[in-house]
User: Fold these one by one.
Assistant:
Number 1:
Amino acid sequence: MPKVLIKNGLVISPTGVIANDVLIDGEKIAAVGAPGWFTSSEQGCDRVIDAAGKYVIPGGVDVHTHMELPFGGTFASDTFETGSRAAAWGGVTTIIDMAVQRYGENVFDGLAEWHRKASGECAIDYAFHQIIGGVDDQSLKDMKYLTEHEGISSFKLFMAYPGVFYSDDGQILKAMQTAAECGAMIMMHAENGPAIDVLVQQALARGDTDPRYHSYTRPSPLEAEATHRAIVLSHVAGNVPLYIVHMSAGDALNEVAAARHHGRNVFAETCPQYLWLTLEETLGQPGFEGSKWVCSTPVRSRDNDPHHIGQMGHGHQGDLWKGLRMNELAVVSTDHCPFCFKDQKELGLGNFSAIPNGIGGVEHRMELIYQGVVAGELSLERWVETCCTTPARMFGMYPQKGIIAPGSDADVVIWDPNNKTKIGINDKHHMNMDHSAWEGWIIDGKVDTVFSRGVALIDNDQYIGRKGHGKYIKRGLSQYLV
Ligand SMILES: [Zn+2]
């Protein structure tokens, strides 16, 4: 395995931005030292990279993706091959995808299906969460087995999608009790599904079928209510660690902040679409164009949401950025779930509720959150913490992943802050979809070089990785609990 020296860069971690050289030996980071420290070993290196003026960051960890997810009569359009390659283009070196058990199915069959889809296909390392779509005695037993033997220590439940993934409060409580017993994390899609379904039916009956009604029928109080209920249930279930996925609303965030204020193991993630995109500019576009931005939870109104006045006077987005600074939001993921416009989003022509839910974003998270640094919303340290380090700690992969330190996997990204990235179908776009939710966005900064376990995947604007390089990561328990 090659030896690589990255010299003269600024190494970023959650605790600082420090001029350091990084020595990679084979799959691991061998040493991190003061600039010039390894000059004598340059001779023995296969490659020396001068990273002067650039940032050296841990490979991104995206803990929420859905490759090939079956949804609404179709499948998310990225396979593990195409999606993990796009992730590499975006400076991401580890994903955790959501293996699926639907109601009436066996958990192990669902997991086996996910291993079959991913095995030998990934450009980067990958792990799984397990969706439990049917809580019963058998699936509760299986949760324990997966935690103890399969490296799957987090289980996702749904308070939304009745008849598909939905669990009622009793089922949720049981799954939480089981997770509390084995030390696992419960991840929650927190929206009040039965109430949403009523609003959807009423909207359709009125003839309100355009994509924007997708957001109007999922108002933020129904996210806040479900978040609150999940927090209460997790408390009753023995304080099981709880992680709310894809938080989109300031009022939901307030529930997480209150629980955290009480010292609870309650965490939340948000996604770039909620930090940057608004109903008015995306989902609310005339005609069917808005379908490109149909995802759940939905993108929300910029500043005239009747249900919520932002604490900072900037609506939901101001609240979410503040939440990221305050660690009320610990992680940024993508909820990457791409569908093409043609033939996929189009399934919902004339009926917004039939539009497949999802936005493709695995390629752009590091870029879009770096733009938050440029905009003054986050520090460089916090960028790396929310996108790399905490995701690894939250889900039991640290310090193998998420940090540049001796002994850690050599997952390293060289980031050029003096360059720019133009996102768009004819610009930077490697996800398997026919449009981009970020079409035309020009971002400060650019992914320069990407290493996964010491192997270069992106170099000189070229992908030089290969499918099958990525390995399955067996995870431990969360390392982020108070
Ligand atoms: Zn999701």
Number 2:
Amino acid sequence: MALPPDRIDRFARHIVLPEIGGAGQVTLAVAHVALVGLGGIGSPALQYLAGAGVGRFTLIDDGRVELSNLQRQTIYSERDVGHGKAVSARRWLANFDGEIAVELVDRRLTRDNAGDAIAGADLVLDGTDNFATRLAVSDACVASGVPLLLAAVGRFQGQVGAFAGHLPEEACYRCFVGDAFDADDCDTCAEDGMLGAMSGWTGTFAAMHAIRVLLSGKAAFGDPQWGRLHLLDGLKAEMRSFHIAKDPACRACGSTVPG
Ligand SMILES: [Zn+2]
């Protein structure tokens, strides 16, 4: 596959990078990313992934845009208030780049529908703010063999990590958090407060990490770092990371069945 001249022009600053190059750009052009949660993380992630030339998105969110979202959810403007986030995000994408293919899912993901919603994706980026959805999405990723990029932010700490629990040696998100949170669907953002730039930092770092995953095996920048959780500390302005091991007894990806 060769990119047409206008696309080569659009992505010229990527293509000249030896770590991405023409092969990397073509890989992004045919990539399909499912974005779960179009909020403070999903908004900047979508902007940078669309800007990077990812060719197809599934946009998943059941919420509506509220005035208090505009402080950090950068794809929305005042005219979107009261409208669905998934529909508004599609409108942003259509204005930004008319060649990107889009599918919408404006339902909340659960154990029963998550598999259908992410079907066909090369990567799922989950930026939702509740554990029940994250675990349902993670389990669906393991079952479908789709990598998961998890991005979360609370106050001044962000977390970003890529998981490939479908692989025999790699952890899934459930290996990390366990089974205690399946019923925990409270949204904490409204109570905790959030500096917009903090969720933006986490979201753009997630976009960069998503590109690493998508380019794995295709370009030198590709390096998914499975199971490595990056912690972003907004108060100290520091980052650190640690590795999550696969739990052999994990309900979603483990090799030993409990009981
Ligand atoms: Zn697991």
